[in-house]
Amino acid sequence: MSEKPQEYTAQQVKTKSGQMQLEVTKGGPYRFIGKSVYFRAFGNKGAGEIAAAMWKSSDWVFQELDKLSDYASDEPHNAAFLSWNHYSDEPGYLFDITYQSTHLLGYTVGRFMKPNTPVPKGMDSMDIPEGHIAKGWIKGENADIEKDISKALKKEGIYEPTSWKFMTEVYPKKEENGDPLFGYYIACRPETHKKPPSKEQKEELKASKVKKEALYAKHKDTITPRGTPVNIDLKTMTLQSDLLHHYSGDLLVMENGGGDRSMVTKETFTGPIKINLRAKTNGSDIRIYYQKGSLMLNRHKNEVWIYDLVYNTDYKFTPKQKITAGEYADIEWTISADYMAVKVNGELWCIGEKFYYIQAQKDNPPEAAHVHIAPGPDSIMTVESMQVMEI
To answer: Cα separation of 107 and 85, whole Å?
Structure first.
């Protein structure tokens, strides 16, 4: 039985954009009702315009919800509910690339209502079970508020952010608090939620491992070098943006990456390629970038994120393994013409044959590109060696 989590005391958190008021409450169940639009969130330059257009045409939504005052919840604010379409709350023991590729970001303008609220014609609804919600409030809008909330939760170590379940932009009416605050909610859960896998989960994990190993065995003999593997001279890598970095002997040490902050190889490579990296992190995020794609290990402590090389579509899964903080890991990222695979310390973590880039690059051969490496925000990553091979 898991122990009761400590309480998270409401507090002021200092951010780049000013002071943020943060609290964690237990809320729900709710039914969020509003009007939705779905789009690919990453690489979509028009995402902001789509969201703005939803708000401009949302008066009728709130007029309809005002008629349902008997069903108003303890969260009366106008809001935008963000969720991943087709997201499953089950642990990601299986790396199902076809399922993951259906991810779209849902943006629903509306309100949290009581459960079982009747849904007006032409509107959408999402039922949200009872759970913990981290609520951040700040004067003016802050593009990094979701990251600021997650960072604060991780620092306290009482609750774990689970923003893949849902996030919410909250806009109180001006008369509610005078000088209005911009709010942002993310789902979270107590750190004590963790428990040993059940017998069924162990069997599923075992079956998944056998399936992945069989798929890897099918392809591994098809990999032949097209040239000599290139051992990257770390001291010839160039800086992109304002990444903090220095050299300690032959080691490359980087801090606070993410976004455009990375180190870049002087060489370019034409795929398919295999990248071998030996590196360690102080806690989270070892990142490798190639073309529009990327591999991110130890995301949110124990997730692996892969972004497709062509469409930048993201695939996420939670392996049973993770890279131990402070220990070097040997990472192998194979980007083949027929499949993609990730191995860590010789163990196959994931493999898939249904990435978008595979068919796209058969139709349009890829162009040469540099390889980038970086830590995540607030992380320190040390690199001992890197090798890139065209295959």
So the answer is: 10
The tens digit of pLDDT for each residue in 172-226 reads 765 455 667 789 999 998 876 556 667 776 777 677 777 777 877 877 766 677 8
Give the rounded distance of the alpha carbon of 33 from its chain centre: 25
Phi, psi (deg, nearest 5) at residue 158: -95, -40
Tell me which fold the domain 199-390 belongs to: Jelly Rolls (2.60.120)
Domain boundaries, the chain: 11-193, 199-390
Quick one: CATH architecture of 11-193?
Alpha-Beta Barrel (3.20)
- One-character DSSP codes across 219-275: HHTT---SS--EE--GGG-EEETT-EEEEETTEEEEES-BTTBEEE-SS-BPSSEEE
Q: From 278, 297, 303, 292, select the one nearest 342 (Cα to Cα).
A: 297
Residues 306 and 351: beta-carbon distance below 8 Å? no
11-193 and 199-390 have identical folds: no
Give dist(CA 388, CA 277) in Å, integer: 9
3-state DSSP: the chain helix, strand, coil percent, rounded to 5?
A: 20, 40, 40
pLDDT at position 7 over 60? no
Query: DSSP assignment, residue 192?
Result: G
Phi, psi of 67 (to 5 degrees): -70, -15
The tokens describing 26, both together, are 């237990």
Residue 91: phi and psi, rounded to 5, are: -55, 145
User: How many alpha carbons lie under 13 Å from residue 114 in its C-beta half-sphere?
Assistant: 9
Q: pLDDT digits over 135-155, tens only?
A: 998 887 666 788 889 888 877
DSSP code of 69? G
- Tokens representing residue 254 in the block: 């980087």
Residues contacting residue 209 through CB under 8 Å, at least 6 positions apart: 348
What distance in Å separates the CA atoms of residue 87 and residue 14, rounded to the nearest whole number?
Answer: 32
* pTM for this prediction: 0.55
